[in-house]
Amino acid sequence: MRWPVIFLALLVVALQYPLWLGKGGWLRVWDVDRQLQSQRETNRQLEQRNAGLEAEVRDLKSGNEAIEERARFELGLTKPGEIFVHTPQKP
Questions:
Q1: Which tens digits make up the pLDDT trace of 29-54?
Q2: What is the chain's percent helix, strand, coil content, to nearest 5?
Q3: CA geometry: angle at 25 spanning 21 and 29, to 5°?
Q4: Domain boundaries, the chain
Q5: What is the spatial distance between Cα 7 and Cα 79, in angstroms, rounded to a whole number?
Q6: What is the pLDDT of residues 3-25, one digit of tens each?
Q7: Cα distances (Å, whole numbers) of residue 40 to 28, 52, 79
Q8: Average pLDDT of the segment spanning 56-81
Q9: In sequence order, what DSSP letters do the residues of 27-46 get, joined into one string?
Q10: d(CA 64, CA 79)
Q11: pTM for this prediction
């Protein structure tokens, strides 16, 4: 009576091995799902960055205000009659 039980237990283990540890097993599925979630988060962040860049390009194409603002902050542009005052920030 003992041999059939041991045989059936080994048979169950042999059938379960590919399900859990095989090439397409649950452990691999969980790992791929984790990678998928990570990639989706990366894609979401990149989509937000791209939307911001697209809006900036639209602003630069549509009018002079965005160009002037960028020139003021990045290049120190001043109009005639304006006085530029730079206050250094404490580290």
A1: 889 999 999 999 999 999 999 999 99
A2: 75, 0, 25
A3: 125
A4: 24-72
A5: 91
A6: 888 888 888 888 877 777 777 77
A7: 18, 18, 46
A8: 82
A9: HHHHHHHHHHHHHHHHHHHH
A10: 14
A11: 0.53
